Amino acid sequence: MDDPLEGAAGGPRRLLGPIGVYCASRVATLFAAHVANVLAVDLTFADILSRWDSGWYLSIVAGGYDYEVLPGQPSNIAFFPLFPLLIRGVAALTGLSPLAAGVTVSLLGGLAGIVAVYLLAEHVAGRAGARRTAALLAFFPGAFVFSMVYTEGLFIAAAATSLLALLRRQWVVGGAAAAVASATRPNGLVLALCCAYVALPAAWRARSVRPLAAVVIAPLGAVAYAIYLQLRTGSAASWLRANDGFGQEADWGASVWRGLGVFVRSPTYDFNILVAVMGVALFLVGLGLMVSQRMPGVFMVYVVGLMAPVLLKTGFGATSRYLMVAFPAVMVLAVAASRPAVYSSLLGVSAGAMTSLMVVQGASMALTP
């Protein structure tokens, strides 16, 4: 592992590398979206950038939440409010259309996420490891969603900031960043668990309540949304009922086993399952590397807390996107690939997969982001 002290100097100029890599990755995805647009003659370029979950977020921006949640029916209440609020704010300030504002927020969120992960990786693995991590994350197979109206960039930025602040014992910053994550996506609450994992022992050792600020602040984003739903729908948990309409129910891994069975019988039968199986394999490799590299324990709490619900619910897909959000598992892959030939191969394969997935999901229904 690289020397963590290596990243202590350099100033803001050292961030130009990850920023440049991220910009290059966005050029690649937008070109891939153009290719998808050429292949899908019935879709416009705007359609390709606003498909799948993007459409639900844009529906909130355009018309607000639909407060009537019918049993078994999807509803945009399942999508947490911070991201659409930011889109609406950018649209109001700039005059951009909701779609253009949404892509802008997503792109800027992705940039912030890459920078935040770079700083986190620099703290634990040194500057060389951080550079590799930022590049691999920017070109990770699921990273095409940074160019769509998706929350991944904003969430990663908040999560990486929270984890870095916790490692630095900056309790208020760690809690506040976790609160941003919990206002962005429901699984942001895993960062409240991370705050407790780090802060409670620190409070005990120091005989101080200051670390507890992180624990108190972390869930406030989700709590605020729950209070809002209670006032508007009569149930603080109405987002859970809305989520059920998308088929997101706990099945304790049955879908994963079925998906693995389909993959073993016919690896190319379902492209979603093929991508998901590869994601699970990378996840398991990442877990092993986190242990062997002796990464901070809070990373394991974060990664397992994010991925366990994904693997224990109905549906078996989009694992590449979820694994990208569990970025410590990507970080350890980049840190391990210290030999230039290995790293170049890994980055090339990842970039090829990212652009290919952008084309496939944009031009067809064969892949769900």
Summarize the structure.
70% of the residues lie in helices and 0% in strands. The protein has 369 residues and is mainly alpha-helical.
Describe the structure.
The chain is mostly helical. It has one domain (4-363). Helix content is 70%, strand content 0%. It contains 17 helices and no strands. Helix 1 (16-39) packs across helix 5 (98-138) and helix 13 crosses helix 16. The two termini are 33 Å apart. The model is unreliable at 1-8 (pLDDT under 50).
Helix content estimate: 55-70%
Order of helices and strands: HHHHHHHHHHHHHHHHH
Distance between termini? 33 Å
Number of domains: 1
From the alpha carbons, calculate the radius of gyration and give it in angstroms.
20 Å
Q: Please outline the major beta sheet.
A: none
Strand pairing plus helix content: what structural class? mainly alpha
Task: For this entry, give a set of tags.
disordered N terminus, 17 helices, 369 residues, mainly alpha
Furnish the topology, listing elements before pairings.
Layout: H1 16-39, H2 45-49, H3 53-63, H4 82-94, H5 98-138, H6 152-167, H7 171-184, H8 190-206, H9 212-217, H10 220-233, H11 238-244, H12 254-265, H13 271-292, H14 297-311, H15 319-325, H16 328-336, H17 340-363
Helix pairs in contact: 1-5, 1-17, 3-4, 4-5, 5-6, 5-16, 6-7, 6-8, 7-8, 7-10, 8-14, 13-16, 14-15
